[in-house]
Every structure is written in structure tokens, then in C-alpha cells.
Protein 1
Amino acid sequence: MEPVSMLLAMAYRAMGDQFHERLRAVELEPLRPAHGYVFRFLAERRATAQDLAAHLGVTKQAAAKIVSELVEWRYVQREPHPTDKRAQYVTLTTKGRDYLKFADGMWADLEAEMASVIGTAELHALKGNLKKYLDHVGVHHLRPVW
Amino acid sequence: MEPVSMLLAMAYRAMGDQFHERLRAVELEPLRPAHGYVFRFLAERRATAQDLAAHLGVTKQAAAKIVSELVEWRYVQREPHPTDKRAQYVTLTTKGRDYLKFADGMWADLEAEMASVIGTAELHALKGNLKKYLDHVGVHHLRPVW
DNA sequence: TATGGTTAGACAACCAAGTTGACTACTTCA
DNA sequence: TGAAGTAGTCAACTTGGTTGTCTAACCATA
């Protein structure tokens, strides 16, 4: 039997491929996986470009480039930082939140398909065990898989 | 609860991070994930650069570059194609097979750690369900997650 | 058996997404 | 209040890919 690592990679890639295939049908701007990680991060907090850089695991210059792109496409906007005049907060616009909602819907569809294949209880157990493992290794949030 | 897609990505990335961390301690050449996919593919068959390109989902030129690199490091070697004078087979050297064995051992260690956290039976069920899903979506072998 | 279409691999020019390094303006702390 | 550190920008470079072109070899068919 294949190692779990390989099965995890295959399953993740299979879902991701279907996600992007469905996405291609509707989207305008060429959104890449990195953008998804940004949206998801910004959904939970206000963040500076530096915060994003740390989260994505890239340099601040790379993060700044991504932010500029997303600002241009109006998915995010810059706001003055209340206390630090050097910094700017980056936040989701309505368009950004709408996109995230749409993407979450597609992920949920793919999850439902998985549930229909392996069963709801099995899916629930699978998720529970993955969480247990993640908790054990101390991973608590999604970082990019590149 | 997070979507499965996210849990799969997190778990895969968590295992991958540990793998590369352990790898860093011993390796000489700067092997990247792409190389792992090449080794694993070559372990099962003789392949031309074109076959590799198709498997990796990159152009033949990109595949050729990777092959040249691995030949230089002596992980793989080129062999004349028996019937097609244009083509060359790429095969693993002893060094390549040794590396693969070593890597598989590390993946097995990480899997054992997972088993110790969630239980052997649970791990077995998890793998079985992932395979069932992969079978349903028609994915039968590992393609790179980039 | 000649010939036209296809394919494997090499070479070159280019591109995208990251990097490092340097700088300014502002912040923080002893 | 001065020195060290930090947010963001600009510019040069690196890397890992791309497209485009070419040659030699293959293969189908008339």
C-alpha cells in the first residue's frame, strides 16, 4: 500500500485540480493558489504586507507584489495603519469576500462528493484523525503547499 | 470544521516539512521535490525525457534540464534506446536507488508516527478511504503538487 | 521506395515569480 | 535624544519554467 504521505498528496491534488477546473469556467483575473491563501488569511484578521509575507513564507517584497496585484483587481484594499505611519493594513473588499464565499462553496461541493463516495461517518472520522495528527505535530493553520 | 481539502493540504505539508527537515541534515546535493517525483517514476519503469515531461506536467525542455542535473549528480543515467535512435532511456543509478530507499524509510517513519497518534486501525481506515476516493475520481498515480 | 507528417532531443530567447541588497521614513527603546 | 530596528519601495538578479526553432530519426502510405 502506498505511504499515507503519497495518498494525502494525491487526494489534495485531485481535489485541487477539480477546484481549478471549475474555477477556470467563471473567473476573470488569473487568480493563482497563492491568492487563495491570502484571501483565507485576510478573512480572519487585518494584516500588513509583512504579516502576509510571514504567513506565506516569502519575502516582504514578494508579498508586496501580490498585494499590489490584488489591489489592482480590487479584491483587497489598503488602509492606513491606525498607529504606525509606515505600515498599511490590507483588508478584503466586498469583491474579495464574495470570491472567498464562492470558493468555499466549491470546496464544500467537492467535500460532499467525497462524502458520497466514502460515507458521511467515514469522512467525519477521516477529518477527525487528520486534525488529531495536526494537533500532535503542532500545525494549526494552513500554509501554502507549493 | 475546516474543509477536508484544507486538512489534506495541512497534513501533507506537515509531513513534507518534517521530511525535508530530516533530509537537510544528510543530503549533499540540493534535491528539490521535483526530483523525488522523478525517482519514484523511474523506480517503476524505463522512461524517456518525454515520458518524464508528461508525468511531471512540464515541457520536454524543462524535463531535459532536470534530467541533465540528475545525471550530473549521478542519480540517474542515460541509456541508448534500443529501437529509436533519437531517444534515450533515463534510468536510476545505484546512487538513485539508494536515495529512494532512504527517502522511503523516512516516509515510513513519519507514517509510523501518525499511526502512533491516531492508531493503526484508524490509519488503515484513513488510507483505505483516501484510496476509495482516488479510485472514484480516477486518479491512479502521484503527480506533483506544486 | 520516396515522401510527407510526426516525434525526441538540443539550443536559444524570453518570462514570471521569486530572491538579495540598498534606501527612506517612521517607530521603539535604553 | 540618539541608536537600533521595522514597513514599505525600488532596482538588479536568479531560477525554473515557457515558447519557438531546428535536426535527425521514425513511420505510414501511395
Protein 2
Amino acid sequence: MTPQTRKKPERRTSPLSRERIVDAAIGLLDTAGESGLTFRSLSERLATGPGAIYWHVAGKSELLAAATDRVVTIALTEGTAGPPGGIHDVALGLFDAIEEHPWLAPQLTTQLSHNPTGPVTTRIFEATGRQVSALDAPASSWFTATSALMHYILGAAGQNAANLALARDLGPEADRSAYMDTVAGAWKQLSPEDYPFTRAVADQGLEHDDRVQFLAGIDLIVAGVTARPPAAQQLREGRARAAEAEPPASGRTSPR
Amino acid sequence: MTPQTRKKPERRTSPLSRERIVDAAIGLLDTAGESGLTFRSLSERLATGPGAIYWHVAGKSELLAAATDRVVTIALTEGTAGPPGGIHDVALGLFDAIEEHPWLAPQLTTQLSHNPTGPVTTRIFEATGRQVSALDAPASSWFTATSALMHYILGAAGQNAANLALARDLGPEADRSAYMDTVAGAWKQLSPEDYPFTRAVADQGLEHDDRVQFLAGIDLIVAGVTARPPAAQQLREGRARAAEAEPPASGRTSPR
DNA sequence: CCGTCGCTGGAATGTCGTTCCATGAACGAG
DNA sequence: CTCGTTCATGGAACGACATTCCAGCGACGG
């Protein structure tokens, strides 16, 4: 599968390399979107044929995985400078990476699902969890806290990137503020009977600064991690509630 | 586009209807996976040709949106029975729906991104937020809390569904417990220097009950929503921290 | 000087979403 | 009862895609 004899990388000067292919793929994804990455367009950009690419890359999914891995690794390693506010650094690093590469969010959820033990997933989990373990919280809550943070970061950052893309569609000079007002306006049109909450939120206005909004969510989860006294007890309560929430039907996987 | 004259639904007895098409699509997705839904396979199952389907449905994306909407609506309306533990009901309703329909998780993130004001997104936001507003928390934190919960629910439930699918690949009799042990085993193989946190989490063992694990995350976020005293102040701190976290480079969208 | 092997790129294959069109079934008008 | 119009059907055709195949290239070891 993989080219075995990569022993001396300087055998030639301008060959097609896996790195060059991944670079071109990232550029194509950034400029033309997810659907813009084609083996044809990639061939054209690299001035070669589709067949040549397959010598270095197994297929499209592996190419996407490699591109995702590259971008995530960069985003995670460059932001680890400042000593305080560790979680904010990791979160904003991913937030900015997803904003620059909107295709990243769907790709990351795909990686999470199809390959949970893969390098991308593990890297994000490790980077997030390391900041969690620096918090004042019992180790028994680490996994739960890291999961919550990771899913929020990925989901909210993806949402933000999507909002930006839609804001651009709204008009050339429209920024996120204008788009958020559009969303709030759409929410106010909803039926008061069926959507009281959404209308109430729209009435009080949506935060216009994306990073402030994003970090507010991070801080909210962090508050949940640190502020609660008995973490182990909480988990026991959760177990009891889960059992109680499933009274009669259907033998699922859980009722151990 | 849409068939206007749907006035009298009983004009004929066994016609191709949008409902029948969506039903068949859901069945196909459940049994054959995301890639199993094809207009050809759908035609075959409905004993017709591809062209006929396009009379009722605009295209594949609309078909997927309709299928997603159907499943989400059912999941959200049936679990709204019990009076207490409202968030758990909503969360478990979505959790179970995603577990039964593993294709739902990717579809939901797609809906969230491509159509944030669409019915699916709004429905989930409303259902989640209604339970948030019942909590003891200031209204200014509602949006943030609802976002955090929604992204966690979708992400964690999708992760769980993916784990189940991978556990089935592990062997016919393997359940989630066996798979979680496999993951923990893989994590223990990681480099102690690069992945100290992940190894530490693996050492203390992973919760085997999926619902308990899931609800622990819900409770953690809920604790963050309720337990912190000054929500408005927190947001102001977040704004200050955001400004401080971006000292030198690159004019982004936020630094207003 | 020649054969081999890593590597290339263009052609070919099969499947997909989508469009087109010839046909049929119901129904109101004459 | 008959005909034209409308709604609806389904099979065939089209273009784009990922992937595979294969005939060749160039450099290096013999």
C-alpha cells in the first residue's frame, strides 16, 4: 500500500509526493469547498493524471483524513504558547482553524465517527483533556468533561464557520452581525405557541461577536466541571436516573 | 416544484406519495447505511423508475432533509411525557433516535450547517432550550446554555452510535463493553510522552454503560448552567479574555 | 549497454444523481 | 361516449465522479 522505499527523500527534485498532494488538496478545499476537491481537479492542479495520485494516496477518504490531520496538528501545536487560560488556547486554536477551513468541521465529525482511535481524534482528545486535567476537578470526571468540551468545540466552531459562509452569501459587505440579525428576524416570525423559547431568545438579541459567544460556552462547561462538589456521586445519580428513565420496553444495550 | 393540487389525497389508492418515498428512504438508510440510499435502489424498492421520484422530491438533499425531519420530529414529540427531568427526556429522545438511525448524526450536522434556520435545527433548539429555561438560570445565559447542550447531545450521541456500529464489526456477540475495552487498550499503547492524559483516562477505565456516560455529560453542563452565580459578569470576562487572547497578528472578523 | 523497478498519466469502467421524454391514467367539457 | 388536458409514471440517456488498468518513462544496478 504505502511506498516502502521512502528511505532517501532526495532521490529526485520535483516528484509528486504525498505532501504536495495533501497541500494541493487543502488549497482546493479552501478555495472551492468540499465539493471542489475532485481527483480530476487535483490532477489538473498538479499537472498529472488521476492514476499518479493513487500511487501516493489510497483513495479520497485517506486524502481527506490526511488533510484533516495536517490542519488539526498545526492548529494544535501553534497555540500552545501562553501559560494561562489553557483551555481557551486549545479551543480558539481549533475555532480559528475551522473558520479558515470550513470543510474541517464535517470532516472532523466523520473522523470521530469512522475512526475514533485515529490520530486526529486522539490528538484533539489529548489536547483538550490535558487542559481539563489542569482544572480543579476529580479525575473521575475527566473523561466526561473532555467529551463535553470536545463536542461543544467542534459543534460550535462548525456552526460559526457555517454562519460565516452563509453571511457571505447574504452580501459582499455583510458580516456576522448582519447575519445574526437575519437569524433573529427569522426566529421572530415563528409561531408563539410552538416556539416560545426560540422567540424569547431572539427578542433578547444574539451576541454579535463570535469569539465571545464561543468562549462563553467554554466557560459555562468549565464552570460545570469545577463548580460542582461531588463528581463521583453525580455519576451515581446519573446511573440511577438512567435506570429510572427506562421503565418498560425494548431490551437495549445498556441495562447491564 | 411541489405538487400544488394535493387538495384531495384520496384521488387514487396506491400512488407514489412523498410520504411513502420518505418512509422507504428511512428504511433503506437504516438497513443499508448512508451509502445504501440510492435513487436506483429506492426506485427498485418502490417498484418504479428514478424519474417518478423526482416528481415528488426535488433531489437527494431534500429527501435526506425530509427523512431527518421526520425522525427528529418523532423523537422529540414522543418523549415529552414525564414532568420531571425534562432535559434528560429530550436528550435521551435524541440519543435513542440517533442510536436507531446512525445516519442521523451526520445528517443533523449537515442540516445545522447548511440550513441553520430550517425546521430541523429550530425544532431541536426549541426543545432543548425550553428545558433550559425551566432551569434556575438567568435568561442571558439561555442561548449559550442551549448551544452547549445541543452540540454536546448531537456530538456525543453520534459518537455513541458510531461506537455501536464499530462494536458490531468487532464480532457478532461483542457489545459496547467489549468495544470500550478495545479503545482503552488502544489508548494504553500510546506514547507516554505525547499522550499522558489519554493514557491516564484509559487506565482508570471507561464507563461501559452508554446512557450513564451520556447523561453524566448532560448533568455536567447543567451544573455549569445552574451553579455559577453571575452569568452576565462571566460573559464580560469572556469578552475581556477574548480581546487579550489575540494580541498581535492578522485582522480577523472579531476585533471590533 | 541493458533490464528492472519505482513512478507516471491517459484511457477505460462502473455507479451515481439528475434530466428527458414517450406513455398511460383519470377527469371535465363537448 | 369521445376527446383533450392535466397529473403522474418509469425507462432511457447524460454528465460527473472515484477508482482501476496499463502502456510507457527515466534512472539506477548489473
